[in-house]
Every structure is written in C-alpha cells, then in structure tokens.
Amino acid sequence: PHTAVIVVAAGSGQRLGAGVPKAFVGLDTHTVLRHALEGVFAAPAAQVVIVAPSDRVGDALTEARAVAGERHDLVTVVAGGLSRQESVAAGLQAVWPDVERVLVHDAARALTPPEVFARVIDALTDGKDAVLPVLPVVDTVKRVSGDRVREPIDRSELAAAQTPQGFRRTILDAAYAAASAEHTDDAALVQSTGTPVWTVPGDERSFKITTPGDLDRARALLAVAPV
Ligand code: CTP
Ligand code: MG
Q1: Alpha carbon distance 211, 14 (integer Å)
Q2: Domain that holds residue 97
Q3: What residues sit around ligand 2, an ion, with C-beta below 5 angstroms?
Q4: In this structure, is residue 93 part of a structural domain?
C-alpha cells in the first residue's frame, strides 16, 4: 500500500524565538527541515507532503529537492494554517488518491531516526489503524492546581507521545472531516472518533526542538555524530 508522509513545518517557533520560522533554523550547515527530511526519505514513502509557512513554500521545495534527488516527483509543498491541526488538514488535502496510509511527522523532531518510521509502518502493515510512537515517562509526575500539589500520578500508566504517527488513510480523513475541537496531536483526534490507537517504541533522538536548550542539544548531537 502506498504511504504518504505529511511533514508539518508551518509553525513560527515562538518558544524557540530564533527570529525565523523554526523549520528554517540552521542546526549545522543544514536546517531543521532538511534534517527532518533526511529521516523521512529513508522511509518507503510514495509521497512526501511538506506543510510550510505561506511565505516559505519555495524555500521548502528547495530543501526537499536537495534531499529527494531523483525522487523529487514525490514532493508536494503546501501552505499551512494558524494551528498545527489546520496545517495537518492542509497537508491531507494534498495527499494523492492512491495513498492508503498516512504518517504525520513534526519537522521539529528533526533527528528522528529511520527505524521509528519503520516501526510505525510495520505496525500499520500488521493491521493497526492508528499507531503512536511513545517513550516511557522518566520523571515523577504530579497533578497540580496552581501552586498546590494534588496527587502523584502513577507513571507506569503514562507515555510521552512522539511523531511520526501513522494512520490508515480513510480513518485520518474521516477524523479530520469530523473534527470540531483542537487536539494536541493526530492520535488524540483519531481516538476521539472511537478508533483504538496502538503504541510502538519511540526514540530519544525524536525529541521535539521547542526551546533554545533543545536547539543546543540537537546541535551537540550532530557535532558528535553527524546525521
Ligand atoms: N506546526 C505547523 N503549523 C502550525 C503550528 C505548528 O505546521 N500552525 C508544526 C511546527 O512547524 C512543528 C510541529 O507542528 O514542526 C510541532 O509544533 P511546535 O513544536 O509547537 O512548533 P511551533 O508551533 O512552530 O512552535 P511554538 O509553539 O513555540 O510557536
Ligand atoms: Mg506550537
């Protein structure tokens, strides 16, 4: 079955505060988006849809062509929306008719290794309709209200959600068509329509570049082991 990967890269990166959209921040000689696409193109994708800020569509296409090489026909670039959910919806509109499964990936998870894409695709091949890569939560977690600690939460019941998240295409389309509220990720949106979501192991290298400290971490990892 044909697989499309939607790479959402249309955010402004407010918390990073780099002065340019986060996907276009340099990690080494290459941008966040370029590194993210290296992982995406290692997967057996039939289409790669990049969702870029509306004034960066041309820049995104240039980055994608550099990574795709002879596979540049697989690349579609569209403009994003005001929220991540709107950006994913814009990407879904551009997915080709013959695509049967869709992975949605944050460009900000720039160092996600190819094995994670493989695990998600394998789980879809095994018949799961919605697949979420997760990591165990290592911190002790509390429920709080204001500065008052309410109760501890058993962390064995918790998992941190990552991307790429994978879905049978018809299910993701239906969930987005029915979406009324904003959800923080695609797994939450799909689960709200009653579809069970299954986990596969995530990877520490899939952390999301969100703050300046995360940017330092990504740059340090690249300096030690070029990706
Ligand atoms: N994203 C998007 N369109 C938006 C908002 C976010 O495509 N309107 C993408 C980002 O580009 C990123 C991913 O969703 O790859 C995860 O979002 P986040 O880390 O929150 O990125 P930003 O929204 O850019 O950062 P911030 O929230 O700090 O502004
Ligand atoms: Mg954001």
Answers
A1: 9
A2: 2-222
A3: 11
A4: yes
